[in-house]
C-alpha cells in the first residue's frame, strides 16, 4: 500500500507492512489508553518510523488516532460505569483550555525542561501507590461540596497543561489524582479520566489541524484501530475491575519512568 496516497500528503511510498504495524500498534495503544492511559508511548515511536513523516505530523496524527480511541472508551465507560458528570465535565472543560496553554508553553520551553520533574513525580506516584495497597479498591470520597469540585477542577487544569506540554502518561496522572486526592476507585477514576483526556485530545487536534499538520488518511486508519482497542480495553477494565486496572497502572507507570528517565540521561 502507498502510504503517501493513504495519508493524503507528500509522504514517501512505504510497504503495506507499515500499515499492518500501525493497525496492530493502534489497537494495543487504544487498549492501554482505555485502561490507564499511556498508549502514546507505544504508538508515537511507530509513527516516527514511517518514511518521510515529520515529528509534528507524527504528533498530530497520533493525537487524531487517540481521539477515536478515547471517544470509544469514554462512551463505553459511561454506558457501563455511569461516572458522575458533575465532576468530570468541569474537569474536562478546564483541561481543554489548560492543554492549549500548555501547548503555547511548549513552544517557549523545550520538553527537556519538564522531563526530570515528571520522572520524579512518577516515581513518587509509584511509591505512594505501592505503599497503599488498598487505595483505589472502592470509591470513598475524601471531600464534598465546593472542596471536591475545586480539587477536581485544579487537577484538570494541571494535567491538561501537562498534556499540552508533553503528553505521555496523561491518563495515568489523571487516574492517580482522582484516586489519591478525591478518593475514587481505580475503575471510577478511569471512567472520568477518559472524558477529561478526550477534551485535551480535542484541544490538541484543533491546534494541529489549524496548522495543517494532521495526515487525515493515516489518522483514520490509526483511529479505527484505536477504536477497536479502546472498546475492548474499556470492556475488559469494567469486567475485571479496579484490581486489574491497578496492575496495568503499575506496569504503564514503570515503563513511563524508564522511558522518560532514559530521555533525561541521554539528553533527548
UniProtKB/TrEMBL annotation:
The keyword Kinase does not apply. The keyword Cell membrane applies. The chain crosses the membrane at residues 20-42, 88-111, 117-134, 146-165, 171-190, 202-223, 243-262. Keywords: Cell membrane, Membrane, Transmembrane, Transmembrane helix, Transport. It holds the Pfam family TauE. It is a multi-pass membrane protein. It comes from the Bacteria. InterPro entries: TM_pro_TauE-like (IPR002781), TSUP (IPR052017). GO terms for cellular component: plasma membrane. Signal peptide: none annotated. Belongs to the 4-toluene sulfonate uptake permease (TSUP) (TC 2.A.102) family. This is Probable membrane transporter protein.
Amino acid at each position: 500500500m502507498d502510504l503517501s496516497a493513504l495519508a493524503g500528503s507528500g509522504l514517501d511510498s512505504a510497504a503495506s507492512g507499515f500499515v499492518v504495524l500501525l493497525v496492530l500498534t493502534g489497537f494495543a495503544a487504544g487498549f492501554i489508553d482505555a485502561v490507564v492511559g499511556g498508549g502514546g508511548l507505544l504508538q508515537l515511536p511507530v509513527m516516527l518510523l514511517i518514511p518521510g513523516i515529520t515529528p509534528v505530523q507524527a504528533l498530530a496524527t497520533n493525537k487524531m488516532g487517540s481521539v477515536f480511541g478515547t471517544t470509544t472508551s469514554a462512551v463505553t465507560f459511561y454506558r457501563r460505569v455511569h461516572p458522575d458528570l458533575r465532576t468530570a465535565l468541569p474537569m474536562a472543560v478546564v483541561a481543554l483550555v489548560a492543554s492549549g496553554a500548555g501547548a503555547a508553553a511548549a513552544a517557549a520551553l523545550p520538553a527537556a525542561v519538564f522531563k526530570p520533574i515528571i520522572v520524579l513525580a512518577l516515581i513518587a506516584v509509584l511509591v505512594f501507590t505501592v505503599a497503599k495497597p488498598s487505595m483505589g479498591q472502592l470509591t470513598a470520597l475524601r471531600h464534598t461540596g465546593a472542596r471536591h469540585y475545586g480539587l477536581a477542577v485544579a487537577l484538570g487544569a494541571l494535567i491538561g497543561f501537562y498534556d499540552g506540554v508533553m503528553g505521555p502518561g496523561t491518563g495515568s496522572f489523571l487516574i492517580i489524582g482522582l484516586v489519591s486526592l478525591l478518593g475514587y476507585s481505580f475503575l471510577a477514576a478511569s471512567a472520568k479520566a477518559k472524558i477529561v483526556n478526550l477534551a485535551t485530545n480535542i484541544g490538541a487536534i484543533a491546534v494541529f489541524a489549524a496548522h495543517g499538520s494532521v495526515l487525515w488518511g493515516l489518522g483514520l486508519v490509526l483511529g479505527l484501530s484505536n477504536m477497536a482497542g479502546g472498546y475492548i480495553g474499556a470492556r475488559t477494565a469494567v469486567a475485571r475491575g479496579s484490581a486489574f486496572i491497578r496492575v496495568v497502572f503499575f506496569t504503564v507507570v514503570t515503563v513511563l519512568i524508564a522511558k522518560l528517565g532514559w530521555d533525561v540521561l541521554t539528553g533527548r
